[in-house]
Amino acid sequence: MLRTAYGVIIYAFASTAAYGQCIQADSPDPVEVSGTLQFQIFAGPPGFKDVKKGDKALPTYTLQLHSPLCLSGDELVGKTFSADRIHIIPEDEAVERRLGEFNGQEVRLTVVRAFGMHTGFHKAPIIAYTQSVSSNESDEGMTTVEAFYLALAAGSGTEAAKFIIPEKRMKGPFSAQVMTRFYGNLYEPLSLISVKPLQSNQFMVHYRFRQSPNNTCNGRAIVTVEMRNEGHLIQSIRSVNGC
């Protein structure tokens, strides 16, 4: 496992028992942590002391802890310990963009492959990779919107249509066939960047895809949901920037 340095720090929410929630070093099993995400700059090489005196700027994000997180099984550290900070490395560019989208907000992060601090680039006692970032607000309907766009990201119109109200999923742009034909044949698949609540039943969605090498969509859309017998379903999607 390659332990790369990246200037992103979070303070993670975890339940407590002795050390608090305890995770195994280098485990690929995902663990969910939560807190308030904040942006911060740290000093990097050569001195790791002061950006204003010539040290490289290391952009970071922090998540304020509600309770400590425990790490065990790291051979370099050699002991089980708990900490109130986690240095997070985004697994890909989409996750990195989402960290910026959620600055200053309550978020949930899914982390894997944690290990202990052992270089000057590590800005917290625990370092871990993050696979996903989502809002920690309890707005109903958000999970429906997220699931719809994740289905589009996989190119599955059949799965995406399950989250549309029945009268709009049978034909037209929200039908399984049309969505599969479009999203299943993109030059670069759709990436869901963020979902943010606007009102109790409306969400602003930020996504990205490429139809061809020279045609990139950095899209935003307002998605409206409504409650049906089967739960929250998407009633309408209005593009904000035309793609």
Instruction: Work out the helix count.
Output: 5
Radius of gyration: 20 Å
Strand coverage percent: 35-45%
Element string (H = helix, E = strand): EEEEEEEHEEHHHHEEEE
Mean pLDDT: 85
What overall geometry do the principal axes of the alpha carbons give?
elongated
Structural class by secondary-structure content: alpha+beta
Helix content class: 10-25%
| Oligomeric state of the chains present here | single chain
- Number of separate strands: 13
Spatial arrangement of strands, main beta sheet: 1-7-9-8-3-4
Main beta sheet: strand number and arrangement? 6 strands, mixed
Uncertain spans, ≥5 residues at pLDDT below 50?
A: 1-18
Distance between the termini: 38 Å
Topology:
Elements: E1 9-10, E2 21-24, E3 31-43, E4 57-64, E5 69-72, E6 81-83, E7 86-90, H1 93-101, E8 106-116, E9 126-135, H2 142-153, H3 157-161, H4 166-169, H5 176-183, E10 188-199, E11 202-212, E12 215-228, E13 231-239
Parallel strand pairs: 2-5, 7-9
Antiparallel strand pairs: 1-7, 3-4, 3-8, 5-6, 8-9, 10-11, 11-12, 12-13
